[in-house]
Amino acid sequence: MNHIGGLFAAVLLCAGIVSGAEPQKTVPRRILSLAPSVTETLFALNLGERVVGVTDYCRYPPEAAALPKVGGYVTPNYEAVAALRPDLAVVLPEHEEVRPRLAALNVDILRVDDRGVSELLNSIRIIGERCGARAEAEAMTSELKAGLDRIARTIGNRPRPRVVLCLGGSGRGGIRDVHAVGPGGIHHDLIVYAGGVNAVPTGPAAYPVLSAEGFLRLDPDVIVQFVSGDPSPEKTRKEWESLSSLKAVSGGRVFVFTQDYLSIPGPRLVRFIETLARALHPEAPWKKN
Amino acid sequence: MIVPPEARGRFLAALAILTVAAIAASMFLGLKSLDWAAVCQGTSGGVDAEIFWRVRLPRVCLGFLAGSALAASGMAFQAMFRNPLATPYTLGVSSGASLGAALYVKFGLALGLTGLPWLPLAAFLGAAGSISLVYGLTRASRGFSTATLLLAGVAISFFFTSFIVFIQYIGDLTTSFRVARWLMGGLETVGFGPVLQVLPFAFPGILAVLCLGHELDLLAIGEDIASARGVAVRTIKKIIFFVASLMVGGVVAACGPIGFVGLIVPHVGRLVIGPRHRELAPFTVLAGGAFLVLCDALGRSLIAPMEIPVGIITALLGGPFFLALLLRGRSERENI
User: Fold this and answer.
1) Which CATH superfamily is domain B11-335 in?
2) Tens digits of per-residue pLDDT, A144-163?
3) Given A140, A167, A185, which residue is the final one in a domain?
4) Closest chain B C-alpha to A213 CA, distance in angstroms
5) How large is the ipTM?
6) FRET partner for A49 with CA separation of 20 to 30 A, picked from A247, A264, B69, B162?
7) Chain B: residue nearest A203 by CA?
8) Do A82 and B188 touch (CB under 8 A)?
9) In 10 A of CB B235, how many CB atoms?
10) Which of B282, B268, B283, B275 has the alpha carbon at shortest distance from B319?
């Protein structure tokens, strides 16, 4: 058994060495994006003309939707990738298994992390720097940061409401299949930057499922629900009325957002923080839109 | 329906030719129709050559090897357990591999394990752990009883599967995506690395199954009869257990769990060429490989560039085909 395990490790080692060539760093002309958030960032940095391929899920901006597709988000079609001849692929941490295969096709790889607001700002900087758009990236991150500072100043020292941010929901007359956002991660950051406190305590799960009892126990001041593409947000909001003893429900502070970009950690999500902050702190001196 | 004994040799030869034809046909199926003149120039032939030599050819080789290995191990387990529902994954090898992969995805980066292809290694270690555990439990219960082996395998499989779901539940979105992708299984590859990973397990395993036809025949009838006919039952069972399990472990480590091929191909073989392993084993090896290669070709062509994981195609195509064959066989038997 051990011999066989050793042999297996040796074969893997050889395969890794063969495919682990160090790529050259030239300004890319043919960029492949493997995530909707990356596509959005590339277009926001005016690099759209150099993007040669995107995933089937990259639908924003509309120009990106018209580009050649390379398949799914974690399931790219490598024939499609090879046919596009990209010189750079921008990937996320979840593409760990995809990276060696792209490298074997001699595609240079840029890995960015969008699992937090500061990581997202940093990834905009990294993409700008690598793709020869440093000035645009600096301008964009400065603008986004200024926006975040403005929100913080407007909120000032107001008491921070305890918030539960939920993803998904059943839409079947109850709060089933609701995943709450635990501490850490970009959705937790949205609560914090919008001037709230995450009511979900630190635990083993990043996105724990909360039952009705769980909500009653946490009894947050505000409930925010993201249901991308929900055609009837008002109906979804009304479902919470069955839990009328919740502070958030009795105080009319349940907010349902349905924008599709809420599941895409791109620049639009950072801009969304102000919308959320206005919901959490309606009494703050916000400038009129 | 069953091919008459005197024609089985010819039938297998024809199947071998059909298998080669299926492999060749699947080389033509893909996102892009290739310029074969460029492909023939080898790696200097540009994009088309790169697609053929580095993406399509290794993928077809991996598909054939994985399909043959899974079908052969399914056949061996079905004979050894005398249970038509036995699959390559019955003994928990696949859930062990998946648990190894999920543990690596959840904790591997935190341990600084990057650079090498650790995921298949972790998956293989998981498979090896599961094989050792099932073997240890079966031995601990005195003797090497088939029923204990089966129950230990099923129990461990359930236990590990719950563990995987737990890891997915506590993981962040990145972990969930990666584990979910792994559990889908698939034959995507660039280069021959995964083929080389599978080969040291698949080749000896397939060879052993092909050579143990007589013993498998007797085991499938009953252990007492096999023993009376001079088969060293316990030794043979251990050899089959290790060889088939390692074969499955090697395949699952490289391709993830691909379902159904190991269950239905041996049954189709029994319906077509009969239960004798001298003929059934080569049928299973050839048809298993060809079936997976064809399913994968469909999976990567139907909604290209999006790919349908091959495990979905094997179940969607194989299920109805198998049921039709089963019903037809039954009505023919009733008419006799």
Assistant:
1) ABC transporter involved in vitamin B12 uptake, BtuC (1.10.3470.10)
2) 999 999 999 999 999 999 99
3) A140
4) 19
5) 0.80
6) A264
7) B170
8) no
9) 11
10) B268
